[in-house]
Design brief:
Elements: H1 2-11, H2 14-31, H3 38-45, H4 53-57, H5 59-73, H6 77-103, H7 107-135, H8 144-170, E1 189-190, E2 202-206, E3 209-216, E4 219-224, E5 238-240, E6 244-246, E7 253-255, E8 261-263, E9 272-277, E10 283-287
Antiparallel strand pairs: 1-10, 2-3, 3-4, 4-9, 5-6, 6-7, 7-8, 9-10
Length: about 300
């Protein structure tokens, strides 16, 4: 019951959240466009960590603001002020990392992420006002107003965290697209293509799995065709440096020879396949790795 109610409440915000999200997407895309700042966006996406950085940072402000409430109950003013300042700083850091992820969020997930981000910005302002009031008070003055603001802020951050959970757990944003794809030992499967031109991305199927192929001489390199970041079609992307494929949706890059991510926004490696000539003619492929979160496949 509650889940359906909250879902309807979030959906009801589409009237303002969708155009506001489109506006934000334009200026963020201009800020983080491929170029000199790509390394910064990769850092904020968590490509170096193999895990979205935003999700790591969000726990810090929630914990700090909870401690503020505890210290206020026991009238530990200095400790409460320090935790409030730490929570504000860490919330800013989490917000910056979240903006990098937001840049590559599309359609309905972007609308929900806009609601999440807006609640969090309002929450941040509430806590900043509380801190300003605290620092401007005499040591023995009543803290009733700052404490009320902190309670309101904690309720808001809880609501914002719920909406953020919807973006990830319900809509699957920033989730590895291959997390549940592979089970059991890999087997050789015939490819549905017979010709693989040199230096050209080729889309193929091996059983139920879509692959993207490239020929380097007598070697055929193959990855799963669905981008691990957001499900983009790698076969429609660009081939860079002869051995790196770039997703057409958000410009995630993978090494064709290994499946390793070269740059974000993806935080995950791509499943890799080996390809050989079939005894009956044509080609066949077998999974070698499952990408991030799994060991090498075994025959």
């Amino acid at each position: 019951m509650l889940a359906r109610l909250f879902t309807r409440l979030i959906a009801a915000q589409a009237g303002w959240a969708r155009p506001f999200g489109e506006f934000n997407h334009r200026w963020l895309s201009a800020l983080f466009r491929p170029g000199p700042l790509r390394w910064l966006k990769d850092f904020l996406n968590g490509t170096w960590l193999g895990h979205p950085l935003h999700a790591v940072l969000t726990d810090v402000p929630i914990g700090a603001f909870f401690l503020v409430l505890i210290f206020d109950v026991f009238d530990q003013r200095v400790a409460a002020d320090v935790c409030l300042g730490l929570g504000i700083l860490s919330m800013v850091g989490a917000a910056v990392a979240g903006l990098a992820d937001y840049t590559d969020t599309d359609d309905h997930p972007r609308m929900v992420a806009t609601v999440h981000a807006t609640i969090m910005v309002v929450t941040l302002l509430v806590f900043v006002i509380s801190l300003v009031l605290r620092l401007g008070q005499a040591p023995d003055a009543s803290r009733a107003v700052p404490i009320v603001l902190d309670v309101v802020g904690f309720l808001l951050i809880s609501a914002g965290a719920y909406v953020g959970g919807e973006v990830v757990y319900t809509l699957g944003n920033m989730v590895n697209r291959h997390a549940w794809r592979f089970f059991g030992a890999p087997k050789w499967a015939a490819l549905d293509v017979t010709e693989i031109p040199e230096g050209t991305l080729v889309k193929a199927k091996a059983g139920a799995q879509g692959l993207v192929l490239i020929r380097n001489g007598e070697t055929i390199l193959a990855l799963h065709e669905t981008c691990a970041h957001a499900g983009g079609p790698l076969s429609q992307g660009r081939l860079l440096e002869g051995n790196v494929v770039e997703c057409p949706w958000h410009q995630s890059r993978y090494e064709m020879a290994t499946g390793h991510r070269r740059s974000g926004p993806t935080d995950y490696d791509q499943p890799r396949y080996e390809v050989r000539r079939a005894d009956s003619g044509g080609w066949e492929a077998r999974r070698v790795t499952v990408g991030s979160g799994g060991a090498e496949a075994t025959a």
